[in-house]
Structure formats: C-alpha cells, structure tokens
Design brief:
Length: 542
Amino acid sequence: MGVARSSIIMAGGTIASRILGFIRTVVLALTIGVTTDAADAFGVANQLPNNVYAIIAGGVLSAVLVPQIVKARAHKDDGHGYIDRLLTLAITVFALVTIAATLAAPFLVSIYTTGWSDAQLALATAFAYWCLPQLFFYGLYSMLGEVLNARSYFGPFMWAPVLSNLVGLIGWVSFLVIFGADPTGERTVDQWSQAEIALLAGSSTLGVMAQAFILFFFWRKIGIRFSFNFSWRGVGLRPAIKAASWSLAMVLVSQIGGLVQTVVASRAVADRGEGPAIASIAAMAIAWLIFMLPHSVVTVSVATAYFTKMSEHVQKKQMHLMKADLRSALRIVVLVNMFSSIALILLSLPVARVFVGEFDSTVALGNVLFATMFGLIPFGMVFMFQRAFYALEDTRTPFVFTSVQIAFHIAGSIYLFFNMESQFLVMSLAGLTSLTISIQALTAYLLLRRRIGEIGAAPKGHALTLRVIVAGIVTFVVGTASVVGLGGIGEDSFAIDSIAGAVGAIFLAGMAMLISYLLTLKLLKVPEIDTALDGIAGILRR
C-alpha cells in the first residue's frame, strides 16, 4: 500500500472518528449537561482509565514495540512466536493493573477531585467501577494495533475508534430514550439509579471493548493466529524500554500536570448554586475535544508524513534537507491552525450552544473554548519540534521543555486555585494552558536552534510569516462582520437562540472566513496554499 493511500485511509478514519466523537459528546451533553454535577462526576470517571493507561504505557507501545515486532519478522516463524509471548505478557500485565485500578476506584476519584460532596464522590466512584475496565481494552487495542502497524496494515487501527464511537453513541441515545434528557441537572447526584449508571458508563466501556476485539478479525485477515504463550524469557524488551525512559518520564510529568489541573478545576463544583452556570471538568473536556479536531486531522497527519522524511535525512546526515522538511511542515501546521484558531475563537459561543441549551451554560462553555483556542498554533509547533528531536534520536530534550511547561502550569494552577472566582476558574485554567504551551513552544524552538542551527530561511521566512498574519487579520475582520451581520451573540440572537441557528451561524460565518482566508493567501502568493488545495482536491477525487 502506497504512502499517499495509507495516509488518506488513516486521515479518513481520524475524521470519521472525530465527527462521531463530536456527535457523541453532543448527545452526552444533552443527556447529562455540561455544567452539572453529574457531568463532572462522569467526566472524572471516564477519564481515569485514559490517565492510568497513559502513565503505564503512554508513548512506549509505539516507540518500543513496533521496532521489536519488525525485527522479529526475521525469525523462522515470521515473528509469530514473539508476538504470542508479547501479547500474552501484555494481557497479563493489563489485566492485573486493571483489577488493581478498579479496586482502587474510590482512591483514584478522591485524588482527582477536591471539595466534592459525599454524594457526588459516590456517583463518580460508581461510574468509575464501570469505566476503569476500559484500561484493559485500551491496552489490548494498542497492542493489536501496533502489530498491524508493524506489518504495514494501518487502516484498522485508525478506523476501529469509529466502532467505539458508534457503540457508545447507541448506548447514550438509548439512555436518552429510556431515562430522558437532563441537561440542567434536575436529577441530583443522589438520585441516580444503578441502571442509569450502568447504561451510561457501561456503554462507554462496551465501545472500547468493541474497538479492541474488532482488531482480532484483521489479525486473522493477514494470517496471524494468537495463542497464549507464557514463555516470556527472552522477549527482549529491556534495552528498548531503557531507550524509551525519557519518553516515559515525559508522559509521567504530563500526567502530574493533568492531575493538578483536574483537581483545581474540580474545586469549581463546590461553589455551584443558584447563580450563573459554573464550568468545571466536563466543560474542560469538551473544549479540549474541539481543540483536538484540527490538531488530530491536520497536525498529526503532517507530522506523521514528515517525521519519516526527517529521520531519513538525519540518518544520511543531510541536515539542510531535514530543516527544509521541518520548515515546510511548520508552515502547513501554522496555516491551518491560524484559520482554525480565529474561527473557533470568534464562534466559541455558537459552538458551545450546540452542546448546551441555557444561555448561562453556553457562556460558561464558550469562555473555556475561547481561552483554549489561543494555544492551538503553539501546540502544533511543539508537536513538530518534538518530532524533529525524535528524528535526531533525542528523547531527553522533549522531556526538558515539557517539564518547563508543566512547572509553569502547576505553579499557575495553584495560584488560580486560591485566587480565582469559581465562575472564571476553568476559563482561567484554559488561558493558563495556552500561555504555558506558548512558553513551551519558544523553549523548544530555542533548544532545537541551538542543536541544529537556524531553522527558518530569513528574511524569506519573515516575509511569509507577515503574509500569514495579514491573512489572519483579514479573516478576523470578515468573521467579526459575519457574526455581527447574523445578529451577534446575544441571548436571543440567531446564533444562540437555537441549535439550528448556531449550526447555521457556524456554517455561514465559517464559510465567509474560509473563503476570505484562502483568497488572501492566494493573493499574497503564499506557496503552501497551492499545495494544500491540490492535496484537498486529490483526496476528494479519490
């Protein structure tokens, strides 16, 4: 399978999965709200398996296992024996960790929250008992998928999350039909029945289970048959894990920062009352989901395509070509993220209205999304700088600039915990994240420049940056005029009054901004715009 076709298949899976995930989140928001105690209880519980999984395996499976599996193909059995032992070991480890984590659900919930009532802690813990088994299936999915990737069978790994989202969506729609919608939190946390808890949280876990097990079908399709093999001696992961130690440390540091942020955000729950809606963990998760849409579809795809090229140039000691690839990738990332940031900043309230009904909750979620989107451009740049260091076979420096970001973020989070009003706490946390990611991007750039020299081709690079900024300003003006022309973003405005109006405003203003952005880039003769348009046309033709 060619690289272009593989990239399109992977991108298609990512886009389909993200769209379904978006719809699924809208249904969840309609079901239990965004600024409600139940939404935050479920948000903590459903995030726990991801957090535990990231700590024990994040970054290691792809960085360590794929090279080992590829090497094992040189064995007489085409690596089947190695894969059996490896998967048996992984299943055993993930099973034990999952059992331990599930038993420790009350403790895990307690360390991710602060100031919660006993009733809300009890609800979050009940959700967690149903959600934490996802940990095992995330591990199984990653293992099965990495074996397929190592054998250049990329599609299933990227498309399996579509099945997970479909299963979860069916479960949550069933909940909506059986138990009804409660977006404003009229159902108090102590009124949830076991059946309601099981259907809501169990549907999420069932989706992850389906996502993992479907990959066994594709294993059989490429001729791999799994059988348990407990002869683990000689699996040979110790050197590879040692090499990935800095990646492990970076994941651990990131999780510590995430833990502090979640604890601080959870403080807002305790101050909910009859006043304005207060955003907390659920709102933060939805804003991050929207933030990750352009990043996952564009930045990750670009980084994946250029990472291999940069690595090859480094191996051949062609540093000028490696830097040229990095410049090209950064330009594409900045071009796309510039538009995405402007559009989502201006349309933050209409986008929030898609998720929530009442105006106060729309404002609460919209403010969090507004502050979050300022970090999109530096976040994409950090991602590319990380890949550049990985191409240089340097995992230590990404740990350093990630630690810098987390240190600033933890310090800022603690300050906000003690000094910020609950109504603006999560919005402030989102703004803090954007600021610290910008610091991380600058630190990463300076460290990379010290390592490989000047990255940009000045003054040509500065002229290109100026043209992109001009295009951004034009787009901002057009977007602002479009939103005002549609009636603004007041409580009774077209863009806020209903979900249909919000979707209409997003489409109309979004198209106006997109056309103005593309035309301005074209008039200013930004070369990457032609490449991007040709690529889009090629994908549509296929």
